[in-house]
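Quick bug: tRNA-binding domain-containing protein output formatted oddly.
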Amino acid sequence: MAGIQSLHLWQGVYPFMAADNVTLADLATYPAVHQWMVGASAEERLAHCNVTRWFDHIQHLPGISKAVGHLTSVDIHTDPVPAAAGSANANAAAGADKSKDAMVNGVADQDKAKAKKAAKEDKKKQRADNKAPERPVEDVTRLDVRVGKITKVWQHPEADKLYCEEIDIGEEKPRQIASGLVPYVVVLCNLKAKNLKGFPSHGMVLCASSADKSNTELIRPPPEAKIGPHSWEGLEGEPDEVLNDKKNPFSKVQPDFRTSPDKIALYKDHRFMTPSGPCFCDSIVGGTIS
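Here's what came back:
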């Protein structure tokens, strides 16, 4: 009887023995409960309504007769409650109803929580499906490199080795950029603006350096090149508006920037191109570009 009471309390919270649906644990428990159910009075079945509900559900499952063929079906509705039970039965019935209501409400709450979680996952998946695929960080076409014309240069007031420049790259007004070189010709435009010794710098001039870092030269476009966007020979893609500091494509592709034996600026084997021809440096062969 104590086992039946424990099962009654368990079934008041959980619809089945080990999960939200029928498992082997339910089939293993069924024969013992069947033995009790056969000898239980209507009053006892009502007092343990959670067990009764569970038992009746299991015994009517398709195929249960094959799984436990030696057990007969129990009609749990034919044994009337004795009239003499009076108020005790009424109280038991009330308690059973409360237990049943608690079980139903508990299951309903679980169903609501599951439905809410499923809806949230569906919404998250839909946002992921609608989101454009993220471009590889190593995609060099994400860099916005342009030919620019220096329109103004002055010594940085607080740094002896820095110059301040205004460079026309085809925008409404010139870009202000700080660097250690006075002339500028090829500019990386979509770096996040940085403050260099109090001067807001909005880009970076690309230069070639010799292997031993003893010589540095500008990467320059052909003399007849016009101000505006540069392209990567053999590659297609639109540059990012602003490069992400945390996942910056420049830091990933820059190690493959170099100068060729004929001093042409390369990304791997792709030339830095303008409509007028490739960009180059004056004398550095096999150098790095940054």
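Actually, after a second look the formatting is fine. The radius of gyration is 40 Å. Closing.
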